[in-house]
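Reading a protein record of the kind used here takes only a little practice. An example makes this concrete, so a full record is given next.
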Amino acid sequence: MSHMAQLYRMAAQYRDKIGFRGQLLIQPKPADPRRHQYESDAMSTMHMLRHFGLDKHYKLYIKPAFARLTSRPYEHDVYMAAAYNMLGCVDASDSWPEFNGTSDICAQDMRDATLVMKCVLEQGGLQQGGFTLGGRVRRESTEPRDLFHGHIMAMDTFARALRNAARMISDGSFSKSVQQRYASYKSGLGERVEKGSITFDECEEFVRKTGEPQPQSSRYEHYQNMFNYYVYPPRE
């Protein structure tokens, strides 16, 4: 890993030498081309960059479809990279969920694309990065126009997803519901836990005095219904 980090450091030094002003990007990838894939996902890549002091030189080029190969949601690495201000570029392709391998199909899932665009909007865009169209046509698609239609489909999918995400953010209803779900962390014991100002012993004492906490529903179906409202809005 230290040898790999040194190559990344040399690349950053060469960028400065030639005066390149673009953003250097690293793509996390769960498998290939190396046997030891140190950049297997967003978190492992960010850890490596920060451990070797390289995070100020690079951002991540996230291919959401790779998250499916690690049994994670499509948008997972997009959100993890954005949470640490490391999201630099997004590949607008997808993979068959039933196939445990990259298939690079042109993006067509509106729900997944909306989650990605919501994240991109909330971080203020991709600055020097952007979206790349890495989708391919399938083996039974043999004409040049098939690739043309595939890229149109991907662009339309993310364009509509952008409108969906903008609507979600502008009306604020979805974010308010999420805030309500985590309201217990904004006061009392939960607030102290979030701020790191409480110990296990104090938590035990709290439970002894107040009794076992009462489980609360995550209301998963409620949030999915709300999300569908933005992805598939009723016709006016």
About this structure: The mean pLDDT is 91. The longest helix spans residues 144-171. The longest strand covers residues 58-62.
